[in-house]
Design a protein that fits this description.
alpha/beta, TIM Barrel, Rossmann fold, FAD/NAD(P)-binding domain, 3 domains, 8-stranded parallel sheet, 6-stranded mixed sheet, FAD/NAD-bd_sf, 2,4-dienoyl-CoA reductase (NADPH2), OxRdtase_FMN_N
Length: 673
Amino acid sequence: MSISLLFQKGTIGSMTLDHRILMGAMHLGIEGDRNQLNQLKAFYIERVKGGAALIITGGVAVLPEGGGDHMFCLTEQDHRDQLKELAEAVHQSGGKIALQLQHQGRYAKSSETGLEPVAPSPIISRITKETPVELSVKGIEKVRDAFIEGAIFAKSAGFDAIEIMGSEGYLLNQFLSPVTNRRTDEYGGDLNKRMKFPLDIAAGIRDQAGGDYPVIYRISGDDYMEGSTTREETIEFARRLADLGVDALNVGVGWHESRIPTVAATVPAGAFAYVVSDIRRAVDVPVIGANRIHTPEVAENMLKQELMDFVAPARPWLADASFALKAQKGDREGLNLCISCNQVCLDHTLGNPLLPVGCLVNPRTGHEWEWKIKEKEKSRHRQERYIAVVGGGIAGLAAAKAAAEQGHHVALFEAREQLGGHFLLASQIPGKDKFLETIRFYKISLDRLNVTIKRSAKPAVEELKAFDKVIIATGVKPYIPKQIKGANLPHVATYSDVLSGKVALGKKIAIVGGGGIGCDLASLIAQANDIPADVKSFFGEYGVKIDFPHHKDVTIISRSKRIAKGVGPTTRWVLLSELRRLGVHILKGFECREISQDGVWVRNDEEERFLKADQVIICAGQTADKALYDHLKGQVPVEVIGGSLDARNLNAARAIRQAYDLFYGCQSEATTY
């Protein structure tokens, strides 16, 4: 589509921006560590060069009790010094940067801060399992003054703007919401009292930082918490912020506790635009939208419909550091899109322990500084070589791309007609259709790098001996447990048989294995019982009620008592909720002992059961496909990556990283033989 509105100049207060694509705030899990400052600078500099009109930092704590692990805190002088260096580095690269001021309130963890969390009222947090201390009036004033002083620091340190974090269930949002604010003093009760604290902060910042310093407020458009701030209250709060002189409103949605997913791949693109639009119609300052705006075409459409004035995606900048630049050049094919898997970003920052942020589809993310050094070293000692990559799954595609980027002559062999391997199979799972975008990106990249691709090809050993090096990326095969009797019966299939379309589905289906693949497959099969949304909408317009009887009965048999345990924390609860909605039966703590013609025998320590089934699908893991390695061993230099190296818990992020490590000289998990 034509992209035009996105690249019109825009203003936020006194700040003029070259276009309308900002980079939203993200914690990287390395903030505050001076040893990681060069990496932090390198990360931001690449996004400046990639076209970000304005970068908003991850939240910076205004007080220690409102911070957390690997988070800048303004009470630390060294952190202030680092932030000043960071702003200077961004400016030297020609970019603009805003400092996000934050206090986590009841979301702060005493195990990380060493201090008791504080909040408007002592209401336990489902996230931390801690009950915060109720802030006194003096405590509230202390926090207010810390926000104001933080803005003054940001201006003196050279930051082009500040963003006040008042969304996602953090402290200022907690004061606004009756769910967490049960106070009876001047800071609690009706809306005027509940919004007094955040309004005092906004007014104080405007007064102390000056009328020309750009101030953005990150407002919660909808908390998605029962009994929380109403839409009418939110609109009134937005108007009051604008009246106080806030220059722009950045609209967030949902709390970490809300039961509506906001960042999962199952959320439709632009799903929360209506929330942003409601606020935009109520105020006369620019309004920024963020959630689920993952592609340039979606962003452009948001602006064309006048739903928002700017967009501030976050994770798409992890997937491609040149997100805006490629959109501006019209290089949609060359854009590496975020697939909203959360595996190496949000699952890292919200996990325990916290891990540095990376990106499944972009192994460079989080390693920009290290790679920059290695690239210089490699350029001095580069020798062209002829490299064969066997296997066109995600590991093989990544290896071929990395090798070609280093100037090698590369041939990729794939036994099937289609590239993508298990990544292609997984693209059929609900919410994982964006996996096709990653495969598309690699196809385009390999074509531009002049990689020779041979499909439906199984190279002979003699052919491969002509190469300087062979990389084995033949992947995995489904594992069939030997102890299961009857696994060879005709109505027994593997997950790959189903996803590749080799077998038709039965009506009463037993899935053996309650890991991520088994649960994903159950969700896919059970969704066939849903009435398609467009069909439901069509008949609804005419007042016709339709019923679609459930014709596929699905049961998951899980040996573990915790199903989908390998799925990340930000998406596991969404998957389990969907399985419940779809009526999937889940049998936990049972082992499949035998498969018969009409069902399966399962048992645990206490009992044995028989479950009727006309089809059994085995999702019991994988085994590495190393047959080719056995033939090549000792005849040609060969390396193994991906599932071929380690079939336990298929991990695309690990496979891609291994592929790149082979050619960028970083620490590698790949095994050389």
